[in-house]
Design brief:
Helix 3 packs parallel to helix 4 (about 100-120). The protein is about 30% helix and about 25% strand. The chain is globular and about 45 Å long. The chain has helices at about 20-25, 45-55, 70-80, 100-120, 130-135, and strands at about 1-5, 30-35, 40, 60-65, 90-95, 125-130, 145-150, 160-165, 175-180. Strands 1-2-4-5-6-7-8-9 form an 8-stranded mixed barrel, surrounded by 4 helices. The protein is an alpha/beta fold. The longest helix has 18 residues, at about 100-120. Strand 2 (about 30-35) and strand 3 (about 40) form a beta hairpin. The protein has one domain (about 1-185): Alpha-Beta Barrel (TIM Barrel).
Length: about 190
């Protein structure tokens, strides 16, 4: 199954996404940016999730990690923004911070995941392959993986694969990243809101 991941960047000049056109073009899921740090919530979050779901797409949501605010407070902020949402593909941590020491990686990653997991069990991580290597080296073993690898081969062990960036998709007003569901275990989550 193919899908897309979106943020407010896909709404230039405040244009909505036509999720019916997205679905009619054969796209089956969408993961929507929810939050970043502890001070930004995507103004399109609820509408994109609701409209994508109404068009028949499976949905998930992600948080963009920022250095500075505590990982625990970021997880709480993310969970609060997604309150009441059924996320078929679950919750995801978008992990692409600047370089960190291994002890910092472990502390930040685990702090976020342990907090998020209380409300959204099975929270997964999105990262590129170099960051995945760093996470493994920091003694962090992500259980649910969404890996970015554009133009290359499908990464091993991931449930979702971000296979391309800056793609044109019918119904989306701006270029968008595209994804492939590699393994149906991406659905093996409690889907009820916390």
């Amino acid at each position: 199954m193919k899908g897309i991941d979106v943020s407010s960047n896909q709404h230039p000049a405040n244009q909505p996404i036509d999720w019916e056109k997205v679905a009619d073009a054969g796209w089956g899921f969408a993961i929507v940016k929810a939050t970043q740090g502890t001070s930004y919530t995507n103004p399109w979050l609820a509408r994109d999730l609701d409209d994508a779901r109404a068009a028949g797409l499976f949905v998930g949501a992600y948080h963009f990690y920022e250095t500075g605010p505590s990982p625990e407070s970021q997880a709480e902020y993310f969970v609060a923004a997604c309150m009441g949402q059924v996320l078929d593909l679950g919750a995801w941590l978008d992990w692409e911070p600047p370089a960190m020491q291994q002890w910092e990686i472990s502390s930040a990653y685990n702090g976020f995941m342990e907090t998020a997991h209380k409300a959204r069990p099975g929270c997964g991580v999105y990262c590129d392959e170099p960051w995945l290597t760093e996470l493994k080296g920091a003694m962090v073993t992500p259980s649910r993986l969404w890996v970015a690898s554009w133009g290359g081969e499908q990464p091993k062990g991931c449930l979702l694969w971000q296979d391309a960036t800056n793609q044109t998709v019918p119904g989306v007003p701006a270029e968008v990243d595209t994804d492939v569901m590699v393994n149906a275990r991406a659905f093996n989550l409690p889907s009820q809101p916390a």
